[in-house]
Write a structure and sequence with these properties.
Strand content: 5-15%
Bound molecules: nicotinamide-adenine-dinucleotide
Number of domains: 1
CATH superfamily: NAD(P)-binding Rossmann-like Domain
Distance between the termini: 41 Å
Number of strands: 7
CATH architecture: 3-Layer(aba) Sandwich
Radius of gyration: 20 Å
CATH class: Alpha Beta
Strand order of the largest sheet: 3-2-1-4-5-6-7
CATH topology: Rossmann fold
Number of helices: 9
Helix content: 40-55%
Largest sheet: 7 strands, parallel
Length: about 300
């Protein structure tokens, strides 16, 4: 989406960190911003700060892991602004430990927020964008872990970010032409993510302070303002992958090389093997079903 002026964007997890800085970067382009966050007071504070950039803002409390609240968020955004053009599915949490020792309840929480939360946003806003019919853009926040950097001591966080890439990659092929899809894949960024467990519900282990080691690690991350601007620049260019940390390329190359070597050694391509291409098979089945319906 090249011209962001007077468009309306909803940013989940918009009260702090990457979401807040996406909001600030959008304001520089003249985009009005809905700051949606589980933390109401912080969302209001951030909405006021973004409004100083000369755009209209709205703060909405929303837990993205609850479908009915995501539906209410959409309702509030549309009734306030009459149209919405961009959704940044950015809210996310981190937690866990070694795969052998983590408890299941915490992992359900990670999936509820990072995967179901993203899907609820895609579904609710995607349906509305389809009905609205005007150019719209869904931007999901993945991470370097979406691209193959394994986060030791955070296997399930890594898994949720792989899932965000999988959902985004299928979504972009399923949505109508008026909707674009991107995935933002940052490496480490200086934010409050290390302390995400402060908002963990009782059902998933309850609130807990993040670890001082994680705080130290994140303090050495990239400047969050840079990520906000890069996210918005990626939307303007219409890129699917929005990448920010150049060193991640090495992991992508290593993973690709390992997979390609496995194919070379175990399943080299032979003429005719395309008959197992699942997408080609689905296309043929759908064409056959269409012909049957017409006859
Ligand atoms: N900081 C990093 O190094 C980094 C790197 C790659 C990806 N990410 C991703 O970026 C996104 C934003 O994280 P951040 O680093 O800005 O952290 P952050 O903690 O500063 O911001 C996350 C925001 O999400 C909100 N939030 C948490 N749970 C929520 C829920 N259930 N519903 C609605 N809002 C909720 C929090 O209140 C907070 O305002 C996350 O998806 C994270 O996984 C972060």
């Amino acid at each position: 989406m090249q011209d962001l002026k007077d468009k309306v964007a909803v940013v989940t997890g918009g009260a702090s960190g990457i979401g807040k800085n996406i909001g600030l970067a959008l304001a520089e382009k003249g985009t009005h911003v809905v700051v949606a966050d589980i933390e109401q007071a912080r969302a209001e504070e951030t909405a006021q700060e973004i409004a100083q950039g000369g755009v209209q803002t709205l703060a909405v409390q929303c837990d993205v892991s609850d479908l009915s609240l995501v539906e209410k968020l959409a309702e509030r955004a549309w009734s306030h602004f009459e149209h919405v053009d961009l959704l940044f599915n950015n809210a996310g949490v981190v937690g866990g430990g070694s795969l052998l020792d983590t408890t299941a309840s915490e992992l359900y929480w990670l999936f509820n927020v990072n995967v179901f939360g993203v899907w609820y946003g895609c579904k609710v806003f995607g349906q509305r964008f389809r009905n609205q019919g005007t150019p719209a853009h869904i931007i999901n926040t993945g991470s370097e872990h979406s691209l193959g950097v394994p986060h030791v001591q955070a296997g399930f966080y890594t898994a949720t970010k792989h899932a965000v890439l999988a959902l985004s990659d299928v979504l972009r092929r399923e949505v109508p032409d008026n909707i674009s899809v991107s995935i933002l894949c940052p490496g480490i960024v200086k934010t409050d993510l290390w302390n995400a467990t402060r908002n963990r519900p009782e059902a998933f282990g309850g609130p807990e302070d993040g670890s001082p080691q994680a705080q130290l690690l994140m303090a050495a991350g990239m400047d969050v303002r840079e990520i906000g601007r890069q996210a918005v620049a990626g939307v303007e260019r219409g890129d699917f992958y929005i990448v920010t940390h150049s060193h991640v390329r090495k992991s992508v190359e290593e993973r690709s090389a390992e997979i390609l070597a496995a194919f070379d050694g175990q399943a080299p391509y032979n003429e005719g093997d395309d008959k197992y291409d699942v997408n080609a098979m689905i296309e043929q089945l759908m064409a056959a079903a269409q012909t049957t319906r017409q006859n």
